[in-house]
Amino acid sequence: MDIPLFELLEPLTMLVEQVLGLKPLLTALMLFKRECLNITIIELYGGKKAISIKKQIGKKQQIMDACRNVKWTPAHIFSIGSTRTYADGSAKEADNSFRPEKPEVKFPNGIDKGTRPWPNLVIEVAYSETIDHVTDRARNYWLKPDRVHDVIVVKIEPVLEGQIPTRMIAWHYCISDKRTRFNFPARTTFEFGTIDENGTPLAFPQGACVINIALSCLYHDVHSSITIPSSLPHPIPIDFLFIQNAIITALTPQKR
Fold it and tell me: What predicted TM-score, i.e. pTM, was given to this entire model?
């Protein structure tokens, strides 16, 4: 019986962590496993900094808070986190993902190469990874037909240890938008850091850097018996001023 390489690597990474305590090797193996032999870049994240960034960007509060009125109802939105997906001969995990209750898909088109449905919204965060690499994954993996409906990509320019990231960029892709064979433009893109690419300081008020998620996108392919509640905000706004503040706060050294 053939066993996929990424399944073999998982117990190995656990052994490295628990017995040897080699965190850099663990990180490299986990990232190698995540790309599953389809690697163009192997990221070695900058320790706690990149982990903190991914936690702040991947946070689900704005989306789940907007959907709190339908929590545990048939229209409940599930945060399924970094669930592993299998397609195109590889395995990939987003930093966070969301979907409602959806019917099973046709075998073998599910995220498990079975019938499990794909999420409707995926959030991808890149730190040392290049813009080209992460946006290519959004367009040509997540947004392939019958997979994810919307993808938010966030790129944080890496900085030296002890420094706070200053350049942050976001993109929003949606399959409802027109695409060609060679071009899939983002619906929305903006810089939400404290400086732009030229080093010019940025200052923006609440509501200026927002990605809006339409309910029809979030509830795409929902069970036919489920009605999208009128009590939900439409669209659901994700304000990146709060995300910028959260990243800066999380990475600012605490005074003793």
Answer: 0.77
